[in-house]
Amino acid sequence: MSWFPQYRSSKFRHVYGKAASKENCYDCIPITRSVHDNHFCAVNPRFIAVVTECAGGGAFLVIPVNQTGKLDPHYPRVCGHKGNVLDIKWNPFNDFVIASCSEDTSVKVWNIPHHVLTKNITHAQKELLGHARRVGLIEWHPTASNILFSTGYDYKVMIWNLDTKESVVQVPVKTISFHTDVILSMSFNTDGSLLATACRDRKIRILDPRAGTLVQEASNKSHRVNKVLFLGDMKKLISTGTSRWNNRQIALWDQDDLSVPLLEEDVDGSSGLLFPFYDSDTHMLYVLGKGDGNIRYYEISLEKPYLNYLMEYRSPLPQKGIGTMPKRGLDVSSCEIFRFYKLIPVKSLIEPVSMIVPRRSESYQEDIYPLTAGVQPALTAQEWLNGLNKGPVLMSLRPGSVILNSPLEATEPVPYQNGPETTEKPSRIQEKWGHWKAEERGPEDKKVGLTNGFDAFECPPPKTENELLQVFYRQQEEIRRLREALIQRDVQIKQLELEIKNIPTDTGRF
What we know:
mainly beta; Methylamine Dehydrogenase, Chain H; 5-stranded mixed sheet
């Protein structure tokens, strides 16, 4: 009887971490000394924000992403809080709006100027006053614009609608107050209809935030939870915490049944908190420990064993906090699929670490960059509050492609870097799907199969806006490939013409 080893094929099997060079780091940053278990850093494609140490209140820095190197000690700050800043988050739909929460029980929303800061910012665009004790966490809604969630040491979760004219808002649109202890973590599902929380009472809860009702609750004595994350559309949750023997642990849960975890895996015996980060595009989970410099990464699958260990990035420099770049800010030319910004207080340094898929080709790798969440909200604040649910508006990461305002407003052509602009629009594609008939096509058109495996004449028409976008991008890719094939044929024709001209001279020698 022979034994066949089981090998698991994965395009992310050899992903490796690459730290930025010294000149591409951010030096002389007075990183906060707070012991609060938060990231203390927020990043978008334009700015990097980091909570700093200061006297007489709370402040944070907002630095342009391309402004690396040593920072001027007199660089302007955002310093309107009266207590230490505990959390900061960029608006996912506006790169110039950031929210912060503090020990002074307030949440503030700031407008960052488009130019480089020349003086301190002390006046916030909006101030949210509703919590009775310090506010420890804030989260923006993933698909609805101007909806902000906050939670504090008063054990309450408050939902704020920022689509108001008032600069000071004292009454939230909803208050959820059935938690019995401090909330340590919050996470939304893909369309923002459910909210998962991890509480200090060791329970994981799934809530319906608009109704304020409890959907699921988990209480496992063998797993003391600290952080919890929804795993995109997989209907699963991942949590990090400690086991009964105080080992750091990862647990996987079924969204519909939180009675028993699907998987519990011990990581190590260190004492630092584990920060989980999930990439729904690649189904990869990254786990970083507070106080150590390593980054472990796994691939999540729907079948057992669910959690597949890939590799570990090792560094001797311990991180206090961490920031992550959105997918639209990555360098796709180097096959970068994730980027961390490590806060290293022992060196007053912020070090970017890129996670890279090793590929020889320098062209755009479509298989590792599927359509991802863009900068356009899918819903207004009032639509979401009225009960509508909608997934994120997707965009392509292909270099040169235009970020569409919304699937219904895709009226601009999408030029590509490797070819001239095309004037085809998604609306025209939909017309073709509805009006092309078999008798209108010639016999040659019926036999043509596209090189990327996508046949526009045999596949069913797109039913959703995102499917329409995918059809559009595929047709653009096919046009580019056909252009390259035409160029190669032109070169071959010229070579044949030269060979034909040289035939009389060659035959005259014999």
